[in-house]
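ok, trying the design again with the full structure, not the truncated one.
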């Protein structure tokens, strides 16, 4: 049984941001500190990537572990109530993500996915973005 009313649950869910999240801001800060310049949320690209580096023909998605189902992550839990609803919602999110990545790669873009739980670790971020300039030159 849910401990809060459906109205309060709805209010909670309405407060969840889809852009300018803390993990996204951390990744953007890291990129900027390391000399990368970028655009945000380009509507003309499939999946509306969080960060677009046009110079390197690279896009970065900063995915929340819960919403996008980071495999093996403790943040990717399934709520105990309405599990059928949540499983269907998560399935559609993952399917939409895969479709967007496929469309971008077919259009020649390099796609990087950074998970929410990785955004705090500069070493992981460095590893993820270290090949951006190398990939474009090869």
């Amino acid at each position: 049984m849910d401990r809060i009313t459906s109205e309060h649950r709805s209010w909670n869910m309405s407060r969840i941001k889809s852009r300018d999240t803390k993990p996204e801001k951390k990744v953007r800060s890291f990129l900027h500190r390391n000399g990368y310049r970028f655009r945000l949320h380009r509507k003309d690209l499939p999946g509306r990537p969080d960060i677009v580096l046009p110079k390197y023909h690279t896009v970065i998605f900063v995915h929340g572990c819960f919403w996008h189902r980071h495999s093996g992550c403790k943040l990717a839990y399934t709520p105990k109530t309405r599990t059928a609803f949540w499983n269907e919602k998560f399935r559609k999110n993952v399917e939409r993500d895969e479709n967007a990545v496929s469309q971008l790669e077919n259009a020649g873009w390099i796609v990087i996915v950074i998970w929410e739980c990785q955004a705090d670790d500069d070493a992981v971020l460095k590893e993820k973005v270290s090949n951006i300039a190398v990939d474009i030159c090869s």
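Keeping the full-length input from now on. The mean pLDDT is 89.
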